[in-house]
């Protein structure tokens, strides 16, 4: 029997695009992430997802990105079975269900209050998974979380919406609270952000992206406990290159583009 569908108060939100990209992947014969939870959530929402302004290739790039961060998160949990996970800007992502951590892991999904309200209507409750409706820039939410365990902070598709000061303040609060941990995130290059800011100024519009990284070592100076562990160019991830185009020529062109635009989008793993 079909249950009653959930209505959206806001449409064209970024978390709907990432959700839909993962749902489309799960419908394929050979999925990348196989996020069947994403597909189930899409089916519960009363909305025509075809209307979304989904970027070309999103059904490949978004599952590849999520799978990469799932991998780093799993590695951390395997090394620290008693730990805390902070999934910041979680949107409608089902990472906690995909990873299914042991009950010794305390998991926190954090996003803006209206997104968390929507999440509560769409996902079942889960033991040791707490939903927090707050801006990550508000210091209050972190004060509610015990700081006695190693922590992994996942910020997928989030930090570009914050200012540089907000990112540094957030990382400083986290590294000041927990004994040790990792922060993993994706970020655009500074040049890409400069371009977006210029375009927005010319159009007298609000810029869609705010923060990006140039030299990844600079963050170590701005947040002194942080040490860079890994920096990977997203456009050169083998699974992305393999899956982005059905033709050999398409993949070859993508490889060349990836070499020229190495810094445009990167995945970072810092530890402290
Ligand atoms: C592109 S979506 C990514 C969602 C999810 N991480 C994923 O990959 O599917 C960006 C998310 O960041 C959230 N977000 C933006 N600014 C935020 C803030 N200041 N505090 C908390 N969440 C924020 C948005 O509400 C949205 O859910």
Task: State the main characteristics.
single chain, 272 residues, alpha/beta, Rossmann fold, eight-stranded mixed beta sheet, 11 helices, 43% helix, 17% strand, globular, binds S-adenosylmethionine
Return the structural class. alpha/beta
Radius of gyration, taken over Cα atoms and rounded to an integer in Å: 18 Å
CATH architecture: 3-Layer(aba) Sandwich
Strand content: 15-25%
Elements, N to C (H/E): HHHEHEHEHEHEHEHEHHE
Oligomer: single chain
Number of strands: 8
Mean of the pLDDT scores?
95
Examine the coordinates and then state which fold CATH places here, giving the name of the CATH topology. Answer: Rossmann fold
CATH H-tier superfamily: Vaccinia Virus protein VP39
Q: What would CATH call the class?
A: Alpha Beta
Ions, cofactors and other bound molecules = S-adenosylmethionine
Number of individual domains: 1
Distance between the termini: 50 Å
Shape: globular
Helix content: 40-55%
Main sheet overview:
8 strands, mixed
Topology:
Layout: H1 14-26, H2 36-44, H3 58-79, E1 84-88, H4 95-99, E2 106-111, H5 113-122, E3 129-133, H6 140-143, E4 151-155, H7 164-177, E5 181-189, H8 190-203, E6 212-213, H9 218-222, E7 227-233, H10 238-244, H11 248-260, E8 265-271
Parallel strand pairs: 1-2, 1-4, 2-3, 4-5, 5-6
Antiparallel strand pairs: 5-8, 7-8
Describe the overall structure:
This protein has one domain: Vaccinia Virus protein VP39 (Rossmann fold, 3-Layer(aba) Sandwich), CATH 3.40.50. It is built from 11 helices and 8 strands. The protein has helices at residues 14-26, 36-44, 58-79, 95-99, 113-122, 140-143, 164-177, 190-203, 218-222, 238-244, 248-260, and strands at 84-88, 106-111, 129-133, 151-155, 181-189, 212-213, 227-233, 265-271. α1 (14-26) crosses α3. The model has no long low-confidence stretch (mean pLDDT 95).
